[in-house]
Amino acid sequence: MRAWQVQELGEPLAVLREVDAPTPDPGPGQLTVRTLATAANFPDVLMCRGLYQVKPDLPFTPGVELCGEVVAVGEGVEGFTVGQRVLGGSALPSGGFAEYAVLNAAQAFPAPASLDDAQASSLYIGYQTGWFGLHRRAHLQAGETLLVHAAAGGVGSAAIQLGKAAGARVIGVVGGAEKAEVARELGADVVVDRRTQDFVEVVKAETGGRGADVIYDPVGGDTYKRSTKCIAFEGRILVVGFAGGTIQEAALNHALIKNYSIVGLHWGLYNAYDSAAVQQCHAELTALADQGLVSPLVSERLAFDAVPDGLQRLGDGTTVGRVVYQAAQ
Fold it and tell me: Distance from CA of residue 269 to its chain's centroid?
């Protein structure tokens, strides 16, 4: 099969190599799938660079999230059949940027019929992260104000749609006019272009000085520090990631004085500690998709040869929505 492999660490465009690799067999508890679509994720970029908390042995094929057709079922797997369309997280080193990939059955789910392959490949990590963050960790309520950073990206775009589905008023922060238009299309009530506007002042103006009830922050660094200036009384700042490249230090005396919560979210831990909640989340996301309340925004559908360039642009921060490898049909 054709596969993209990382054989040495570095920037995706420099280190990804096309190889002719054996089609992987499923181990116990696993599925082998024919790849239909693979959504590019920032962890894919970080793994190419050797900067992610998960460090697969070299060589490996990235692509942590995909939609595929089951072609083989491993020992002990129940509930899946050959020919079934599924989505979920890949079992590295056999990631989704290849013609065939391996999934752990515990992290595989039926793909909603309401979503096409590219959209289904994008429903797992970003939307589960958003659902657990907004509902399990921040307990977002209808009528509250949700501030979403990096609102035109894969994780941020999911948070906008989930926030609107929950009845919140959503303020999205983006960088640039093109990304601002994307955030509006996703349903953000207010969009802030951080290149020309101060999101702190906009949030205060839009909330009558009260601030945002929940702040969804996958950026970190200075973005987090400035967020503390516009968090509401009893507000919750969700620490989702550090895409900005700087891991901030929290001033706990400030959290005490202003009476807000700093809430961490490591979504992957739910697979280890509460797999039933992950199943419940997928059921709710499927229902939301079937109702048209969430629909992953796929901005680009990449041919196989374009995967390294697409991953590089994602890493450089120049993409919007979800960039997806779309297998030839």
Answer: 15
Structure token digits, residue 243:
């895409």
- Per-residue pLDDT of the chain in tens (329 residues, 90 and over written 9): 999 999 999 999 999 999 999 999 999 999 999 999 999 999 999 999 999 888 999 999 999 999 999 999 999 999 999 999 999 999 999 999 999 999 999 999 999 999 999 999 999 999 999 999 999 999 999 999 999 999 998 899 999 999 999 999 999 999 999 999 999 999 999 999 999 999 999 999 999 999 999 999 999 899 999 999 999 999 999 999 877 777 888 888 899 889 999 999 999 899 999 999 999 999 999 999 999 999 999 999 999 999 999 999 999 988 988 999 999 86
Q: Please tell me whether the overall predicted TM-score, pTM, comes out greater than 0.85 for this model.
A: yes
Q: Which of 289, 284, 236 is nearest to 264 (CA)?
A: 236
Question: Angle CA(287)–CA(293)–CA(297) in degrees, nearest 5?
Answer: 110
In this structure, what is the dihedral angle of CA atoms 160, 301, 286, 173, given to the nearest 10 degrees?
Answer: -10
